[in-house]
Amino acid sequence: MNETVQHSRKKLSLPEFAALTAAMISMVALSIDIMLPVIEEIAIEMGELGANSGQLIIISLFIGLAIGQLLYGPVSDTVGRKPAIAVGFGIFIFGTIICILAKDFHSMLIGRFLQGLGAAAPRIVSMSIVRDLYEGREMAKITSIIMGFFILVPALAPALGQLIVNVAPWQMIFYVLLGQGVFVLLWFLWRQAETLHPEYKRKFSLIQIAARAWEFLTTRVSFWYTIAAGIVFGAFIGYLVTSPQLFKDLYGIDEKFPYYFGGLALVIGSASLFNARLVERLGMRKLCLRAVVTQMLASGIFFILAWQQGGHLPLHIFMIWGVISFFMLGFLFGNFNAIALEPMGHMAGIGAAMVGSLSTFLSLGLGRFIGSLYHQDLLPLLGSYTVLGFLSILIMKWADRVD
Questions:
Q1: Angle at the Cα of 311 from the Cα atoms of 255 and 328, rounded to 5 degrees
Q2: Residue 171: how many other CB atoms lie within 10 Å
């Protein structure tokens, strides 16, 4: 084992390393979910009166994230993990300051884009650090611990955002994000040593990156499972960006929205507790197929029920749909990515960047389209889960076809 890795392991205990890594990868989730209670308020205060304008506060961050995922993987292989992550934190902090000072909606969206562009670095490169330090069962163990920390963020972040705006202006949310960014950056720089050994550094080559990207695009399983993932997650982003409006408009839930959102987020996280055992029994492909089929059928049934009632469902019925659909979604997040990366072992860094970026771009477009269809009823959301689930099944079958 090289000297750098030995030094890193001596310096950080397993719990501290897991906590630090979880804090870095959770920056994206926190930056999204903490904003959900106030996106409409911000849009209205800044003069954007369109019914669905607030959704852009979420979408713009995702766009920065999608672009950033393509950049940081190759850059970290060239300059090292710590410089790449430090630059990303710097961009995130700069974007957060722009959001704090924003006087118009366009400035807000620029700041949110920069937040996503910056947060992509700790999100992507931190997992490269995990790969540098751990392998095999040890890597699986540390990843499970990290996800244990991470699962709490989507559940708690909306409640934190609501708590903040109950006692202070919405700008205080960005001060909290700024403080988190500075704190985690200083923690990372002080405690985590560089994990990329000098002999493993690669010269940055656009030609080589383009060649590997083309290899990914022409590898059937990798490309088409990435498309399937983007389609399924597009429906979820449709829910994510419309959820504050949906709970408020249809059910009169405003200040208690974070608890309903957080409860469904915990459902997604809880599925990961069952995933390892079921994957061993069924395999990734069969598990993904069954999860998507279940999600599609449930959504189709609830769509028919909602259509018969003018696009509405009682709250408890809607929550039943949410529990079923999001529990199935919990099986898909990791397994889709794992299947897509299976043939990419020789170029895992660029492969992961391509999977993350392409699926995010696709899901963004679909999610924004679904969000634009929202008109105070459930039909666009339930219909999208049904149609996109069916389309994803066809693509999975095509990806696994043997010529």
A1: 70
A2: 15
Query: What is the structure's pLDDT at 3?
Result: 43
CA 12 and chain centroid, separation: 27
The structural domains of the chain, with segments of one domain joined by +, span 13-192, 205-403
Using one digit for the tens of pLDDT, what is the confidence trace for 9-52? 445 888 888 889 989 989 998 999 999 999 989 999 998 877 78
Q: What is the DSSP letter of 342?
A: G
User: Which residue spans within 226-339 are E strands per DSSP?
Assistant: none
Q: Find where tokens 């870095």 sit.
A: 24
Please name the residue that has the structure tokens 């889960």. Answer: 385
Widest CA span of the chain, in angstroms?
A: 67
Rounded to 10°, the helix 105-133/81-101 angle is 160
Do 205-403 and 13-192 have the same topology in CATH? yes
Interacting residues of 96 by C-beta distance below 8 A, sequence separation 6+: 111, 115, 174, 177, 178, 181
Average model confidence (pLDDT) for the chain? 87
| Other CB atoms within 10 A of residue 294 CB | 16
Residue 8 has pLDDT above 50, yes or no: no
The CATH class of the 205-403 domain is: mainly alpha
Residue 154 tokens read as 């989507």
403: helix, strand or coil: coil
In sequence order, the 6+-apart residues with CB closer than 8 A to the CB of 193 are: 4, 7, 8, 11, 82
Each residue's pLDDT tens digit, 373-393 = 999 999 999 999 999 999 999
Q: What's the pLDDT band for 4 if we cut at 50, 70, 90?
A: very low
Enumerate residues 6+ apart whose C-beta is below 8 A from 111: 95, 96, 97, 98, 99, 102
Sequence-distant (6+) residues with CB within 8 A of 190 are none
Q: Which CATH architecture has domain 13-192?
A: Up-down Bundle (1.20)
Rounded distance, CA 389 to CA 394, Å?
A: 9
pLDDT tens track for 302-350: 999 999 999 999 999 999 999 999 999 888 877 887 788 778 756 666 7
46 closest CA partner among 99, 117, 113: 99
For residue 250, give the nearest of 364, 392, 381, 82 by alpha carbon.
Answer: 381
Q: Dihedrals φ, ψ of 363, to 5°?
A: -65, -30
